[in-house]
């Protein structure tokens, strides 16, 4: 999924390079975006679980505990939120897509 996303954003990332960013800065940008998406996704999922629990408790009229295999969920989410696998999954395709130097900007060129 990240490879497809990186391939689809090649033109956008090259534009960032044309604006003056180095290849390393672009890779850090993509890696930070990926980490932010994982973090926000986890927050949204947790809020969804709390909402479902509250709705079920209201419908049943009894308190409902939120029971989940937290060690398994934390391990899976934690693994993908770590910089090494997450960074490799997003940074490597980005790095490869930007391996060529960007073309010079046509701005200021007399035609």
Q: Tags for this entry?
A:
elongated; 5 helices; about 110 residues; mainly alpha; cell membrane; about 0% strand
Element layout with pairings:
Blueprint: H1 2-8, H2 10-18, H3 23-60, H4 70-81, H5 83-97
Would you give an account of this structure?
- By secondary structure, the chain is an all-alpha fold.
- The protein contains five helices and no strands.
- It has helices spanning 2-8, 10-18, 23-60, 70-81, 83-97.
- Helix 1 (2-8) packs parallel to helix 5 (83-97) and helix 3 packs across helix 5 (83-97).
- It is elongated and about 60 Å long.
- The relative contact order is 0.17.
In short:
With 111 residues, this protein is mainly α.
- Percent range for helical residues? over 70%
The main β sheet shows up as: none
Distance between the termini: 42 Å
Please give the radius of gyration in angstroms: 21 Å
What's the number of domains? 1
Compute the number of strand runs.
Answer: 0
Number of H/I helices: 5
Give the overall pLDDT as a whole number: 76
**Helix/strand/pairing category:** mainly alpha
- Spans of at least 5 consecutive residues with low confidence: none
Approximately how much beta-strand content do the residues carry? under 5%
- In N-to-C order, the SSE pattern is HHHHH
């Amino acid at each position: 999924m990240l490879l497809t996303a990186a391939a689809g954003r090649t033109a956008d990332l090259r534009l960032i390079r044309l604006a003056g960013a180095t290849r390393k800065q672009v890779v850090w940008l993509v890696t930070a975006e990926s980490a932010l998406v994982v973090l926000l996704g986890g927050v949204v999922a947790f809020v969804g679980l709390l909402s479902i629990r509250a709705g079920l408790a209201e419908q049943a009229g009894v308190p409902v505990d939120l029971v989940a295999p937290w060690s398994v969920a934390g391990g899976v989410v934690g693994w993908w939120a770590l910089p090494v696998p997450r960074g490799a999954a997003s940074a490597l395709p980005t790095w490869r897509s930007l391996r060529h130097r960007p073309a010079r900007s046509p701005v200021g060129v007399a035609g």
